[in-house]
Protein: Queuine tRNA-ribosyltransferase
Amino acid sequence: MYELIKTDGKAKRGRLVTVHGTIETPVFMNVGTAAAIKGAVSTDDLRAIKTQVELSNTYHLHVRPGDEIVRKLGGLHKFMNWDKPILTDSGGFQVFSLAGLRKIKEEGVHFHSHIDGKKIFMGPEESMQIQSNLASTIAMAFDECPSSVADRSYMEKSVARTTRWLKRCKKEMNRLNSLSGTLNSQQLLFGINQGGIYEDIRISHAQQITELNLDGYAVGGLAVGESHEDMYRILDAVVPYLPQNKPTYLMGVGTPANILEAVDRGVDFFDCVYPSRNGRHGHVYTNRGKLNLFNAKYELDDRPIEENCQCPACRSYSRAYIRHLLKAKEMLGMRLCVLHNLYFYNTMMEEIREAIEGGTYKEYKARKLAGMGQKS
Structure:
């Protein structure tokens, strides 16, 4: 059940009540592809850094350890000791990212596993069955994420197939949720809008999938090579055609600036690997821009990554010490940077929610962007 609490311009402050707890939006979902955040971050850590939703990947968990194994162990929540919401990506993005290892047909996609080359088939029904075995809170519909430079003819055919697949996903999800042995019979289903950078295809697809009355709607196929200007243009065009009284999820985005801009356009769910990936390489986010802790200028810097930050890294350690850990290839350095970055993102989302509630989002966004544009 989604409640729209407040709007400030197009920005939405919402609340999604799920079987695994309430999600306050706008929200950033912390990405743990294989049921773990890369960088030695535990689920206890996630609780400490204000994580609301953990995101895992259907394809990767199907390949290893296997969704049947996760099911036998009580589902993903029990398996990874996480009692809050989990969203599972459908495997559709792997149709895009594993282009050299797959073949797309009407029934679904034939893969070769990126781990051992084993043949895999995944279609809408298989994706729903895997996600039901994982027992995530929110399941994503199985779609094709076409290349952002695909021509119009291919894009139209791809989007039409994604719509047919979405109808099959909904039918199968309803069937699975009605079975007595299903681990999470209240699993939610989000559909995905596609269409590349063609506004008319995007809008038409949004109108079609809105009619299916799903639990939420995602905008997919962005942040895959197109410019930021194109991404914002597409959001300006398509978000007004998605239901305002449902969650709006921009998949795989992005930088703090991307999130601030997308919130201003009506998006309230986000996920991205940037904070954890950048953290593992010593790049940390602050309110005055991004720092590279490998830089020599931090060798004698006894300040925390960011003054007044309450993350586990900033409460206890200096830039100089974390830099030493990174240079010495000690895992603790990577872990501390990831914890800081995820805390920074989760805190920024808190600030965004407060600003929308207070009717000051435009001012907050301008102030935040200006601050992060400064050099430290």
The first strand starts at residue 2 and ends at 8. The mean pLDDT is 95.
